[in-house]
Amino acid sequence: MALDPEALARALQPLEKAATLPASAYTSPAVYAAETERIFSHAWLCAGRVEQIPNAGDWMTLDLLDDKLVVVRGADDRVRVLSRVCRHRGAELCEGRGNTRSFQCPYHAWTYGLDGRLVGAPLMDGAADFDRTRFGLPELRSEVWEGWIFVSFDADAAPLGPQLAPLERLLARYRLEERVALEPLVFESPFNWKLLVDNFMEAYHHIAIHRDTLQPLFPADRSHAPDADGPYSVLIMPGKERDAEPLVAAVVYPFHLFAPGGEMLSWYQLLPTRHDHFTLRIHCCFAREAVEDPAQAAKLEALRELVRTVHEQDIAACQATWAGLNARSYRAGRLGPLEKPLWQFNRWWIERMTG
Asked: What is the pLDDT of residues 283-320, one digit of tens each?
């Protein structure tokens, strides 16, 4: 794995002395492979929100870490995350989203209940010692936190909720679990996933990239980050006007990004596929009464378009950084006092990458 111990030691210095991560942390396929094994495979990753599958039988698919998953609400109202790969010959059971009483494989009609149990396997009577109970769809561990459905590939991962209790108390006033997500804005992102985490969690760049959008409203020099007591960071960005509600950004490590506000909750769902690519889905979430009120439609769409504009500015910043990180002349830089959340994340990342 291409990580220089001396470079990591410089990144672990106190914030006032800390360096950025070395370029290889972003640009190396070997580092990404190690991230997949040491971080992604053991972390809690966001699979969606509960309001996306409100009724019994509602389901939606998700491709995560080269696996094919389906998130489904059972007849018992329980949300489950199951493999959507048939246990017979491996065909994919479904794609997209819908509502069903069962999942049937399009290849040989093996049928599974909403809880993953194999309930039908036509013409298998002649198979010796065939036991249907042994061929259900594997279920991954999942938890619901503040309306989000989290999943872990690690059967022994520590429960997520207790780790996020301080964050839940900090953000209680935003009533995150009551928000409703609109259809997402989707961006194919040809750079490393950590660049977006870095960008999302500091307001320093407001002075340049967002000089005409966020900086006039949320000046960079007013931002600050509290100490974190768990696998997360929070950035608080007070408004320019004294009575303005602050803009808040948060990350649950490794890459669950969200920004709660008075009217809108922005949620960035990252789906990494390679060291140099991830799919980004930006969900704009609002109070249910606003979503269901036709008179509010134009206002909600305007807020959604503002999010698109801001992210298009962020794309330019991330692409410029990606080009520089891949240059022969690049050397690690220094973090500034407004980049405390990056420093917090880097320390968490290094600890898990180095053991």
From this structure: 999 999 999 999 999 999 999 999 999 999 999 999 99
